[in-house]
């Protein structure tokens, strides 16, 4: 199994897709009708539904550079018929995949026999009507569109528009808008590439369409700013409609201030009123109507602030953590090191640390909360800051759209946790 | 994950001190002389950042976001050093320097000194290391795609990445022009090379902000030869230089104490490769000089 690089539920939550560094996509499906589910009333488990190779390693002959096949992002389209569609992207190319089931086949042809060979007409004495008979379920995945040559730099985000027809793809310096049916053209809507590359000081780190307003999207930058753009105002959205920026605290300025302010992920809330961002040490909630600063700030691992120099040395400071909302926008979740991830309850402001690690959680066992020891009375089970394993990073995660089920990618393992106490979101 | 030891703690505690220093002293920076430990820590951060920019992965494009953040850090350090007066001393002394190879040696010599004043007294000054690494590489090679009509940039060979980390490559000409302009700006009266005049108007107007020097002033050679053809032997040479940061961590933490075997082994293996790939001529010999130079920095001799 390869390192998982992205995790995404579809709109109903019945399907869960993961992409990995080897360019493979694995889709899990939730059990709905097994006996166990019906008897115990437990929500179903996720089992492998389909696996396919989405992207292959490629080579850019012009620049003599390899193009990694690692899947950076997967986004599901809204389901419109029996088939499911998803977009998957590596650094350069976005692909639209159709996932469809076949569980019946026609039998009883008049002119062909069971193996498909033509029958001798003289042997046919009566007519029969072919019927559809059930067969073993077959899941077929086929590429329907390939959106290539749209990006010079590395694609970091894709986002399907609420109009169901278009989507955006963002790389370090540009954002393009595509129509799902058109592969040979895309429309550039943001371009922050300076005329002279030596003047470059800021890159785009993430982008997302508004969940309801098809003309609004947001993108984040390496300088910690968010820009909300309205596509109705002009064709090229280089000028933002709103700029969200937190004023810098002069007291805490260091050489690493800019690096740790770089936003690694941005997500609209389900109700479309808030933005959730993740920078290196914190997760912040912003109100779309207030651009002067975040309305809530959550310390994810403040104990790392004194270690920034070491983390710069070993490159951990450049790790890009994702963040997610729960279905009711009352809880936010993000990852950390040592296989830890954090959940913050927005109403109480309290956070809880959990661990995605096989040895400490058996199937169906209750997750116990963890703690990093930062002073004061040391409790049993506390982990010291110097004992944290920085190679075990929880970067990618997803939250079920309507229930309290979360999927956590821990290197090459996928953990799915369900809240049995409150399975439905409040 | 970290090599646990005194070095890391030193860096962290010095980082705390640095943070406190930066935070606490918002007054007239130009009159403030930084404490020696802060200068040392700042210098090591600068070294680390420059090495990070140079030792990039050669087969896959480096992460642009990371490169930009590191470059901004370097720029920030240089701005602060300028305000402290440290940078001025270095550039003024550089203007007086005549010989390019002196410059080469001086870079390494000065940057090892914790006291900038003593370094200035040594009469030489550094030009910072080639920053061209993955940063410029990525930009300029992409320029080939984006602006095919630009004659200047069409000169880029496709193998630019292989040469990148050690300052070689087609962007010499541009850097040299930047250097020329920057030296002229400093009022240095050295009789270095004339500006090529090529595409000078394409360069941005000379920016007096010291931060701009980050990209403008770096080069090791004064006379850029024609871009070297891709050389598989050179690839092999560079392949010995392991860009894994785990090793870098070990190397950097060894700076203060007796150097560990790693860098010396590297140096030896590089020089053992020496005779073979040097047939392409002077360009490769100077590349080996660059490698030696960088190895000396890492080793801290």
Which key features would you list for this structure?
heterodimer; A: 426 residues; mainly beta; four-stranded antiparallel beta sheet; globular; B: 301 residues; mainly alpha; 15 helices; 0% strand; disordered N terminus
Q: Rough shape of chain B?
A: globular
Rounded Rg of chain B:
19 Å
Helix content of chain A: under 10%
Percentage of residues in strands of chain A = 35-45%
The tally of strands of chain B reads: 0
Termini Cα gap of chain B: 27 Å
- Binned, the helix content of chain B reads 55-70%
**Spans of at least 5 consecutive residues with low confidence of chain A:** none
- What is the typical, i.e. mean, pLDDT of chain A? 92
Order of helices and strands of chain B: HHHHHHHHHHHHHHH
Return the structural class of chain B: mainly alpha
Oligomeric organization of the protein chains:
heterodimer
Chains forming the largest contact: A-B, 48 and 59 residues
- Can you list the strand order of the major beta sheet of chain A? 1-2-3-4
Q: How would you characterize the largest beta sheet of chain A?
A: 4 strands, antiparallel
Q: Summarize model confidence as the mean pLDDT of chain B.
A: 51
Major beta sheet summary of chain B: none
What structural class results from the helix and strand content of chain A?
mainly beta
Protein name (chain A): Serine/threonine-protein phosphatase 2A 55 kDa regulatory subunit B
Organism (chain A): Hippocampus comes (Tiger tail seahorse)
Keywords (chain A): Repeat, WD repeat
GO molecular function (chain A): protein phosphatase regulator activity
Could you explain the architecture of this structure?
Chain A is mainly beta. Helices cover 4% and strands 40% of the residues of chain A. Chain A is built from three helices and 31 strands. In chain A, the strands form nine sheets. A four-stranded antiparallel β-sheet of chain A has the order 1-2-3-4, with no helix packed on it. Chain A is globular and about 95 Å long. Chain B is mainly alpha-helical and 301 residues long. Chain B is built from 15 helices and no strands. Chain B has helices at 6-24, 36-54, 64-84, 86-96, 100-112, 116-121, 133-146, 151-154, 160-163, 172-186, 213-216, 232-239, 245-253, 261-273, 282-299. In chain B, helix 5 packs parallel to helix 15 (282-299) and helix 14 (261-273) runs antiparallel to helix 15. The longest helix of chain B is centred in the N-terminal third of the chain and has 21 residues, at 64-84. Residues 1-31, 98-228 and 233-282 of chain B have low confidence and may be disordered. The chains are: A mainly beta (426), B mainly alpha (301). Chains A and B meet through helix 3 of A and helix 1, helix 2, helix 3, helix 7 and helix 9 of B. Chain A: Belongs to the phosphatase 2A regulatory subunit B family. Chain A: PP2A consists of a common heterodimeric core enzyme, composed of a 36 kDa catalytic subunit (subunit C) and a 65 kDa constant regulatory subunit (PR65 or subunit A), that associates with a variety of regulatory subunits. Chain A: This is Serine/threonine-protein phosphatase 2A 55 kDa regulatory subunit B. Chain A: InterPro entries: PP2A_PR55, WD40/YVTN_repeat-like_dom_sf, WD40_repeat_dom_sf, WD40_rpt. Chain A: One of its GO terms (molecular function) is protein phosphatase regulator activity.
